[in-house]
Amino acid sequence: MEHSTIAAIATAPGAGGIAVVRLSGPESYAVAAKVFHPANPAKRVEDAKGYTALFGHFMEGEEAFDEGVALFFRAPHSYTGEDVVELSCHGGSAVARRLVESCIAAGAAPAAPGEYTRRAFLNGKLGLTQAEAVMDLISADGRQGAALANASLNGALAKKIGAEKDALTALQAHLTAWVDFPEEDVPALEDAQLVSTLTAVKGELDTLIRNYDAGAVLREGVDCAIVGRPNAGKSTLLNLLAGFDRAIVTPVAGTTRDVVEQAVRLGDIRLNLFDTAGLRETEDAIEAEGIRRSWKKLDEAGLILAVFDGSEPLTREDLALAQRCAGRPAIALVNKEDKPTQFDAEIIAGDFAMVIPVCCQEEGSRRVIAAAVARLLGTNNIDPHAASLSGQRQLAAATRARDAVAGALDAVSGGFGLDAVSVCVDDALAALCDLTGENASENVINEVFERFCVGK
Ligand SMILES: Nc1nc2c(c(=O)[nH]1)N(C=O)[C@@H](CNc1ccc(C(=O)N[C@@H](CCC(=O)O)C(=O)O)cc1)CN2
Ligand SMILES: Nc1nc2c(ncn2[C@@H]2O[C@H](COP(=O)(O)OP(=O)(O)OP(=O)(O)O)[C@@H](O)[C@H]2O)c(=O)[nH]1
Ligand SMILES: [Mg+2]
Questions:
Q1: Can you give the pTM of this predicted structure?
Q2: Ligand 2: does its nearest atom lie under 6 Å from the Cβ of 340?
Q3: Residue 253 assigned as binding residue
Q4: Among 36, 268, 391, 446, which one has the highest count of C-beta atoms within 10 angstroms of its own C-beta?
Q5: How far apart are CA 87 and CA 109, in angstroms?
């Protein structure tokens, strides 16, 4: 249990209708009484019941500098599980900052990043995966990403991991009894039963791990490089996806020299688009530098849209590009579908996950491209209400658990004996406990809350 009382602005910085300063800790009511005077002289802050509000004035010493509302929560019925008072003042940073300063003068300590949610976790209000979901929810900018975070906040992941842990714990109890007391009358586990439990647990973990990348795309978006030879229609594609004239388009080959960035929302996914200089051999030093940057973007991107000019025969540059895309998350867009086709798409098909004819001058192609991107990145298969893993920490723990269960299965099929199986199941259980944050070390907890902002 923390003994300090903390204060911070809970709302986003900048101009806004209302700003909220939040107090949490045993002295919240005492601090609030100094900085907030109820307008009704019959009311006292110290007597306010939980889930009630009072109107009044915010004070610095004897000076009232704003009017506003105080909202009261009584431990343990609050976000943090401690006494909490929320002070709503007028928006804009100046008033809210002055209010925090008054709270600190009245005895509160400035809150560290994530400290409210850390206290909620330490007081048992939230599990570790739920605390992480709070962070994801705050930073989500799309409906689907926010839905995934909300499912985790509601405990979807914690519940799923709990169920797998229960299955392994039951198995382990049986294994331990059998290993420790072989002479007693513990019925030996049938291999078939052992294998079916382990296989089921492994299957659930495999699904979570398989969906990780798609979930990350929904939560965080993806960097997308638009590449291809000059005049293929890359900038036209950028403008189509952006919905406005972002980049210069001309019939001159070599129009785009520098990388042009634009974030767009395509269906459920935020794409950070990078339109690049057309790829070709050149003597021009400026263009050459642009092309070097094009290749670099291609190598770094989480998604590649390779644009080909379908109205012309395939060239050496096209082939070089296709080869560079092999094994990458890349879609070939064969552009200028409105003109007679000269392009032999068969030759590059093997290097791409998909080859799609489009006309980047036509709005209809946007939908076709959106569907292809969702299919390639797997976001169309994600159930936003289902359990999902978020962040490297969760992924690493789930992978360790899955590998340990796979090890247990190998031990069974290799006939290594039940104690070998038991060791693997122990490892799997430890990894699942790490994932949910039971027995989480100070380091792990610090790592999780470091990513938070002040006031959360
Ligand atoms: N004004 C305000 N709005 C907010 C928050 C907040 O801290 N303050 N939250 C901050 O992120 C989120 C909501 N989180 C909250 C979680 C629990 C409790 C709470 O009072 N829990 C009690 C009562 C539960 C019940 O009645 O069933 C409890 O846990 O005992 C409040 C807010 C979003 N909206
Ligand atoms: N007919 C037809 N013309 C297109 C289509 N898409 C683009 N164009 C034309 O192709 C030319 C080149 O388009 P851009 O978008 O500038 O091509 P780019 O790939 O960005 O070219 P660089 O910046 O030079 O590398 C322009 O004249 C476009 O109007 C299409 O689908 N059909
Ligand atoms: Mg261009």
A1: 0.82
A2: no
A3: yes
A4: 36
A5: 16
